[in-house]
Amino acid sequence: MSRSNDELKGYRGLSRSKLTEWGIRVWSDVQVLNDAGSMFEGVVLPRSETLDDLHIVIKMRNGYNIGIHVDRVRSIKEVGYKEAVYKIPEKDFPRSPELPNVTLLGTGGTIASRLDYRTGAVIPAFTPGELYGAVPELADICNLQTKKLFGVFSENMASREYIILAKTIGDEIATGVDGIVIGHGTDTMGHTAAILNFMVQNSPVPIVVVGSQRSSDRPSSDAALNLIHAVRAAAFGNIAEVQICMFGPTSDRYGLLHRGTRCRKMHSSYRSAFRTIGDIPLCIVNRDSFTYLTEDYLPRDSQRQVVTDPLYDDRATILYYYPGMSPDLVDALVEKGYRGIVIAGTGLGHVNKPLYPALERAIKLGVHVVMTVQTLWGYAQMYVYDTGRDLLDIGVVPLDNMLPETALMKLCWVLGHTDEHDEVLRLMRHPVNHEITEREPHNGYLILQGGLPETEEFTKSHWK
Amino acid sequence: MKNHVQQSIDYAEVGLIAGLEVHQQLLTDHKMFCRCPAGLYTTEHDGELLRHMRPTLSELGEYDGTALMEFKTKKNIIYLLHKSNVCTYEMDDTPPFLMNQKALDVAVEQCLMLGCDIVDEVHVARKQYLDGSIPTGFQRTAIVGVNGRLPFRDRELSITQVSVEEDSCREVSDKGHLIVWRTDRLGMPLIETVTGPDLRTPDEVVEAILLIGRVCRSTGHVRVGLGASRQDVNVSVRGGRRVEIKGVPQAWWARGLVHGEAIRQVNLLRLREELHQRGFKRPEDLVISHSDVTDLFAASALPFLSPGNWERFVRQEHRRPGFELGQGPFCVRAVKLTGLAGTLSWPTQPEYTFAHELAGRVRVIAGLDQQPILLHTEKWPDYADSHRELRKIKQRLRCGPRDVAVIIWGPMQDTLAAADEIRLRFQDAMDGVPLETRQPFLDGSTDFERILPGPDRMYPDTDSPPIRMTRERVNRLQTTLPPPPWVREERYSAVGIPQSTIHFLIRRNGAALVDYVVEECKAGLRDTCFFFGERLKGLRRSGIQLDAISKARWCEFFHAIADRPVLQEAWREILSWMLDAPDRTVNQLVEENGLLEDTSGWDCLVTEIVESCHPNRDDGSPERRFRFYMGRVMPKLRGRVPAREVGAVLRLKLERSK
Fold it and tell me: What ipTM did this prediction achieve?
């Protein structure tokens, strides 16, 4: 009973009591004989808490892991103790006065990561020294310093984290850095890039959000190249906005810089998951060049004074409309005190008629109801059909081509400033940084349809 | 220098030890970790990917040596894709789906047949390969069974482990810094059977490969054909180290390969002794320097070494900067090996010297692959100006009589990497036999492929949950398990079937059919073995698709024969009818083709034919005449009247008509 939790990490129930009985700890180097006379030699590993309580996991001498059923153990003997010290070789990050200074802010995600035995998943870990050990190329680009703000998966990012992040960015800019990189999990990277566009305005330097679709514990990971691209964009790029830097194609070729308010993760696992929606990306970033695709961005200007405005009220939500949606949902949101509702409507911004009274009631109670489109591409143009006109009459306000997630982030930010209905709606309709654009270029919507001869011709001759 | 070549050795005396890793593709509909079809190979592609690999830390926080070596090679990796056989999983753009349970079942069957203990909980691991053969940079693999044994000669061959894993890509080309892989085979389920280091001679290795092959085939659930099974042979001699000869395509290759490796290790151990005697014991004892000597060869008569010839090579081979071509301007580099004279011509494998060991490293790690890879002053080629150029080199490097130099050429950065590799290979030589994976060739020789990976390249697959192997599942598989090959061998040889026929039946999955037919149709074991093992061989060779005949139809065939033994004489005809009309039963076919017709008066037919036709060349030989008439009569009576009876009547008539 004297064993601490750590010594039997992840084991519970039967396996835990057996290990205790045998006097075996996690990291014990053991010889196990089972009831079939097989001998297993290796190190007892921690066990994932989500697994059953019947097996102990051993890393055998040849590197393989296996689980041994505790009931089949005839004898077990500790012959040593070998705790794994997982550490990326740490080397002092070289500094050079000629190179720009970049700060990497860590929020979590898999840019740099190690194994977590408790969950069997990977957890983030980095210092400049570790990063230099893993991606030595970084030292040729800049003088890097890192700040670990939190170690969370991106789905756990929320108002508290956004506010800390925005404030830290402001502080870092004040120290005179030449660029900022934010390591982030990819799932909600779009949300973070959007909110930071509102919370940190008028930046003198690039603020680049980066992650990886394959964790950095894999040889084929996109983490290192993404990091190299992002650090280059922060150190030398000319776009002083909050932008996302991720793989262009899935091949190891170049990264794209996307405007934070217009970017979305469009595939659950592809390396090339991030796309600018309704517009084109800002820039192609290579190991040795930048190709700017537009001139419409805020250029780097060290004299510019940053404005940080880290306010956030999370009493807003997205209502993803579906046919037959019940008005109860709207009533329930109002009842629970939600102050803002972003509808992701069908087509040009529609919901069905039975919802009207509920929306009307909500708006009368001062709830701000705005309309985006679940098609993601295209505008909410509610004056085209009767349905839309009715909604306009009720007071649902169209947000043109603002992405639903961006709209939510913006609404939370706006609610942090005011709950005054007209002012909220005015601010929502007034773009801070291209979250609404007046024109959609014809190459702003390109989903090549596979199978068509012209697409096949293209995909055959271009690296994906 | 004395000639140290040693071509024949006593394996027991040098302490030869060998073990096997036999890879066998499984017969499943789908791949291991995704739902792509298995076994669908293509020669074309409709998409390409470009990737690179970086080493990562092992679970215990170490870098794997091989991984670091492979990172040094700085390979650009291109994958060729075809929609028919790969999805985004093979591209490493989608995490694995849950493991193919059919494949796992077959692996368990294999384990049971090998007498293995099935592991209670199967954990999927990632085994790092940075050569690009798998786009993730690792192979997903899991141990299913351990601690097996099988009868071998008059003893037992131990089975260390059986694992189930995904197959890798097929190499298309490897030029300089660009390697191209085809992804069709990637992800196919296979099992790897690892034996203990129990084999003592090349012949035993060949025999063990064949034996394990028969065990695999006996499950009836494995793929056959080219590339469906490959083996790695691990070899060492006393004082040497484990060297893995990778991907031996056919068992008989192993004989020469194991022999050659044994000799290589013996010779490398002698080289170690020689180096130690010369005072080279620690890395710092080596004095190896290198310098740029491009100017010396600007006008060389050799077809390489001059910048002009290099440019021509680059053009002819379409080597592109940033892809195949390494970095930096063309450079000829001379590596001076102080006090190491004689080591480059030191024999290693039969027909090869230590210089070949250096060339292997230079080719693989530095990416310098223009033949002959390197030159050295101990065996300088003969050409117009050869003596003068050799003298110039020695002068430039100030080579004394005990020194020697190696020349390498190519892009500057690669020559630097090559010079370093040469130093490292000598460092290894002071230590004897380096742990290596070597590529086999038909002539029995091998060449360097990579440093042998260690346990540090293993990492748990965080994408796949462990799988509990319940006793119920194992028992279910045990009850339907076909007999292992040695049980069949004993049974078949008891009725007088020769070993070669038995092995043929087991290898070609014929034994399962034999047992089925014997069981279901009460056919005789000996006749059935003979039928499937010998008679059908000829048909199969002439390309007849016997596999198209189902078990049930074979049963009809044997039932028909049991009812009317005379039908057996018309087996060729019946088989061809069966193949032509797959929807007709054997009985229908026999009837439709007139084999059931009344045969009374058949002897009149014999008389008729004897009277109506005559041999063209009648030399009076009674046997020849007999055969002539049998050939005329039997096509009309085969399967209806026994040939024996027809023959007897015919002989009588021929005698009478004399």
Answer: 0.91
